[in-house]
Design brief:
The chain is mainly α and 208 residues long. It has helices at 15-41, 63-85, 91-109, 116-136, 146-161, 163-196. The longest helix is centred in the C-terminal third of the chain and has 34 residues, at 163-196. The two termini are 20 Å apart.
Length: 208
């Protein structure tokens, strides 16, 4: 993308890029920290055989902690999406990003052993649209971190559609983590790139 695609901007990071970046990065950090710390609290928890969302199930000691952190992470994701897309005509990309945050919120508000239907819908939204968001993200950053973002998105998609195969090697819990962890590592990277942007592409920052 040519530099001419970037209208105006102040050195040190654009206000929109910095604001959205903080929300994405903090949201990704919250989800990862909530998961890794909660795994240490549940007695006998086995990451190879148990799903991540087990940590938020009704009756588990980590339910309130994990669900609240996922809810906050999803809310931050939605806010970050609104900030970066609010003046954009990239409607499909915006919907893709929103569905990730909405998916996290659905997962947090519908524990797997209380409302498995909505929980599953939320989990699928996070997995599929999170991976595609990573693949699409270079158009929002002028191509910065292009290859790393696309690698993480493609890895997540391959793990999603090849879940049955990877589960034979990594176990169901390990296979699931191969789907979700790249998405949240990417979210932290994406947020950091946005914070460092001096301007945003014309596609999301059109000239008035």
């Amino acid at each position: 993308m040519e530099r001419s695609d970037y209208p105006g901007g102040k050195p040190g990071g654009s206000p929109r890029g910095t604001g959205a970046g903080i929300f994405f990065a903090v949201g990704g950090i919250l989800v990862l920290l909530a998961t890794t710390t909660a795994e240490e609290v549940v007695p006998g928890f086995n990451v190879t055989h148990q799903a991540i969302s087990t940590l938020g199930g009704a009756g588990y000691p980590t339910m309130l902690y994990w669900d609240s952190q996922i809810l906050l992470g999803g809310t931050l994701w939605v806010i970050g999406t609104w900030i970066i897309f609010r003046n954009s005509k990239l409607y499909l990309s915006a919907i893709n990003f929103y569905l990730v945050g909405i998916g996290l919120i659905l997962v947090s508000l519908n524990p797997w052993n209380i409302n498995p239907f909505l929980h599953t819908i939320g989990a699928v939204c996070v997995a599929f649209f999170g991976a595609t968001a990573a693949i699409l993200s270079p158009r929002l950053t002028g191509g910065r971190a292009r290859y790393t973002s696309m690698f993480m998105g493609i890895l997540s998609l391959l793990a999603l559609f090849g879940n049955a195969i990877s589960a034979t090697v990594l176990g169901p819990g390990g296979a699931e983590r191969l789907i979700y962890y790249p998405i949240f590592f990417w979210a932290i990277l994406f947020g950091g790139v946005l914070v460092g942007e001096t301007t945003l592409p014309a596609s999301v920052n059109p000239k008035s």
